[in-house]
Amino acid sequence: MRKFEIEKPDEALRGDIREKIDNLNKPKGALGRLETLAEQICMIQQTPCPALRHPCHLLFGGDHGIEREGVSVSPREVTWQQMINFTRGGGGVNMFCRQHGFTLYIIDMGVDHDLSNQPAIIDRKIAFGTDNFLYGPAMSKEQLNRAIETGCEMVDKCHSDGCNIICMGEMGIGNTSPSSIWMHLFGNIPLDECIGAGAGLNAPGMQHKREVLGQAVENFHRYLAEKGIPETEMEKEAIPYFAGFEMAGAIGAMLRAAELGMTVMVDGFIMSACMLAASRLVPEVLSYAVFCHCGDESGHQRMLSLMDAQPLLHLGMRLGEGTGALCAYPIIDSAVRMVNEMNNFENAKITKYF
Q: What is the pLDDT of residues 99-132, one digit of tens each?
């Protein structure tokens, strides 16, 4: 895996940024979360006068071998059907990208269907879905590296076009399963507390999902022992063992965007799990992450707390695709406009009363 050189933003400017925000013509702290959000964007861009340029959205698609175990109410073919629907502008992600002026890239990382005749889909297929992690690693280390490099490639493309704020979304039936397992392993949280209904499993379906994922985790620990891999390497090993190709692509994109000093908007449960995994590889990535939405998937808020994250929205959404992040973009825009366009007490000739 490539080595990512991500540095935390230089703290030297923080005092000036806070002073600017505190001297806008409003009571100190009166704009609440907008103020801390503006401060974060200023710190990422290392300027008290930030700008949002050419926002982009990367939608990675891939299928999961674990889906064969009946852990999702949605059938596998929905992945490729939705990918084609996205090319026609008919998805939720399309609507929100149009609304907020995002350039959308649709990337086939490992969909279990031939999409090569779809010119609007970028073909980076690694395989026709991952292997079933109930019985062994979902992907090889070489496949993981290819997926991460694809994520980096896509971010480099956006950055070269002038983008400085980016978000990622996913399309992959079954991907709440690896997300739940990562939450369990990375957060040392009981597995049952990490497993949700995904797209809508009923009670028997939930029980079956718990049994399958519990067995998969047992098999993973047995795999580590058989290979002589120390527990200190567990987190790194858990990424290729459980990831989907679309999730690994998102991890690479998050790390590369942070490396380039871009703001990374983080969507719901799946993308939060990817950011959690990315942060276990390079902790500094969290300085560049704006957590946009807490969904209704069981345990999402608890996952966010593992990263000390405060999401901007809680709209009860569980669509995926990056839609929660896209919905939060106007709030980020408002924070940037606040710090750039509001007058201060001195210029407005208003008595500063604190």
A: 999 999 999 999 999 999 999 999 999 999 999 9
Where residue 296 falls among pLDDT bands split at 50, 70, 90?
confident
- 231 and 154 in contact (C-beta within 8 Å)? no
Q: Which of 39, 67, 246, 321 is catalytic?
A: 321
Q: Are residues 272 and 300 in contact, defined by beta-carbon separation less than 8 angstroms?
A: yes
Look up 19 and say whether it is catalytic: no
Res 16: pLDDT: 96
Please, are residues 113 and 130 in contact by the beta-carbon 8 Å criterion?
no
Q: What are phi and psi of 218, to 5 degrees?
A: -60, -45
DSSP bridge partners of 167: 57, 265
**Residue 242: closest CA among 304, 191, 180:** 180
pLDDT single digits (tens) 146-158:
999 999 999 999 9
The tokens of 74 are what? 């949605």
**How far apart, in whole angstroms, are the C-alpha atoms of residue 146 and residue 5?**
19
How much is the pTM?
0.96
Helix (H) / strand (E) containing 68: none
Here the tokens at position 232 are 């200190």
